[in-house]
Amino acid sequence: MSTVRSDITGSLEDYLETIYRILGRSSVARVRDIAEEMQVNPASVTPAMKRLSAKQLIKYSKRNYIELTEKGLFIARRTMTRHNLLSRFLTEVLGISREQAECDACAMEHFLSESSMERLAAFFEFLAASPELQALIDTGFGNCPEGKEELELLPLTDLEPGSSRRIARINAGQKIRGQLIDSGFIQGAIITLTRPGGTDLPFIVDLDGYDQELPGEIAECVLLHPVQEQTGEDDYEK
Amino acid sequence: MSTVRSDITGSLEDYLETIYRILGRSSVARVRDIAEEMQVNPASVTPAMKRLSAKQLIKYSKRNYIELTEKGLFIARRTMTRHNLLSRFLTEVLGISREQAECDACAMEHFLSESSMERLAAFFEFLAASPELQALIDTGFGNCPEGKEELELLPLTDLEPGSSRRIARINAGQKIRGQLIDSGFIQGAIITLTRPGGTDLPFIVDLDGYDQELPGEIAECVLLHPVQEQTGEDDYEK
DNA sequence: TCTATTTGTTAGATTTGTCTAACAGAAATA
DNA sequence: TATTTCTGTTAGACAAATCTAACAAATAGA
């Protein structure tokens, strides 16, 4: 299901990156440093070093310092670059906390393809060169810009049965917001009202071909675009 | 190194998501459908179903149709939402091809944290509500907006030895660009010129605490911000 | 009803990655 | 020099995920 990147696993990429980081600050890398940095048992490091050595990514002989080969260095740097790009996107653009961003970046770095990485890098260059965009993002987007479009938006509760609209945004606090997003209610998704609800009766809507129930007070928070969409299988066509 | 999300592995999340997708179009899910959709041997599906069943995420009895439990449905939807968000970010914002975006999203969907997912959803809502931003992104950013800042940027080859600058952008074709990005030369990174080069002599620079060699014709492509940065360990402080 | 095909399961092997416990080498200290 | 401590390795176990090959159940066709 995933793109195999450099015939090397995520775990081994982590080891390479860790070795690279250690070498960046302390001239030698030992098993112990690696184990500590990665929060892993030293006994797990040895077999990992053997696997890396077999793939010619490090120079390793028993009870000796560990060095990166040319190829290992390349992968380590590339992994770290991916990590930095993801981490910066999460903090600078999305406004995620540093710690959370580190976590997410750690996990995602192994899978970002070459082309996505390049585009992400280009995005940052573009962002840096475009003060307008920068300013827009800097203001933070939790608070939507103006209320100018507010009047046109249609709450899900006002939708006619059988008709389909695109979700414009979720107008709710953190908790309900998260709940709705988890269930697939994201901007741009097409929603069809299968059966309208009432005070006690939940609304039933179709999203991604699956029926979902929504209590009235939650359905109110889902704001839709005013234009009608044709019902179809193909969402997200932009 | 990674955030464990819902005490369920990426592979099992994939199975859940696949079951969800199948149920969205065909009323029953069988082992065979799952195996086919996931490009996996049917013999691999059975043990996966057992693991999911043990975690109460599906209703499964030998040789029978497979159903999602409430909890399983929740995880399946959430995984799919993550997938959609990532895929849309990659295609709509970064301009990655649909196929590549699918691949990347498949791999990354399992690790995006709750908070990052919410912020990413908010980013799309913001984007949709902000025509200026939309327009900026729609124009595509491979071609940098104006050349107005061009004059101020300093090629790496003109940097004085020992001084540090932030990378503004890479002014090169796809090939050299990719090469430089893989090595960590991304917008915002701080670079220090350790030793200037010449026609035959490569430039030596410090990036992430590691020395790297750059032939002159490649160093020319690295454009730096004009303002001096203090040399330090802490990059990416924004 | 009996066979052939489709579908699902089991058994057994393999790879990756982790752990604990026991042991071996090296360095530091007495 | 002898002993203790630190560091690294091995052995052995385990879990997750996959595969191939062989088998079993269900369905369809004759």
Description:
Two copies of one chain form a homodimer. Chain A is an alpha+beta fold. Chain A has two domains: 1-139, Arc Repressor Mutant, subunit A, CATH 1.10.10.10; 150-224, SH3 type barrels (Roll), CATH 2.30.30. In chain A, 46% of the residues lie in helices and 13% in strands. Chain A is built from nine helices and eight strands. Chain A has helices at 10-26, 31-38, 42-54, 70-93, 98-108, 114-129, 131-138, 174-182, 216-219; strands at 58-59, 67-68, 154-155, 164-170, 190-195, 203-207, 210-214, 222-224. In chain A, the strands form two sheets. Chain A has a six-stranded antiparallel beta sheet with strand order 3-8-4-5-6-7. In chain A, strands 1-2 form a two-stranded antiparallel sheet. In chain A, α1 (10-26) packs across α4 (70-93) and α2 (31-38) crosses α3 (42-54). The radius of gyration of chain A is 24 Å and the shape is elongated. Chains A and B meet through α1, α4, α5, α6 and α7 of A and α1, α4, α5, α6 and α7 of B. The structure holds a DNA duplex (30 and 30 nucleotides).
Number of domains of chain A: 2
Could you say what the CATH architecture of the largest domain in chain A is?
A: Orthogonal Bundle
Helix and strand string of chain A, N-terminal first?
Answer: HHHEEHHHHEEHEEEHE
Give the terminus-to-terminus CA distance of chain A: 25 Å
Beta fraction of the residues of chain A?
A: 5-15%
The largest sheet of chain A, given as strand count, sense and whether it forms a barrel, is: 6 strands, antiparallel
CATH homologous superfamily classification of the largest domain in chain A: Winged helix-like DNA-binding domain superfamily/Winged helix DNA-binding domain
Helical stretch count of chain A? 9
Q: Taking Cα atoms only, what radius of gyration of chain A do you get, to the nearest Å?
A: 24 Å
Please state the overall shape of chain A, judged from the principal axes of the Cα atoms. Answer: elongated
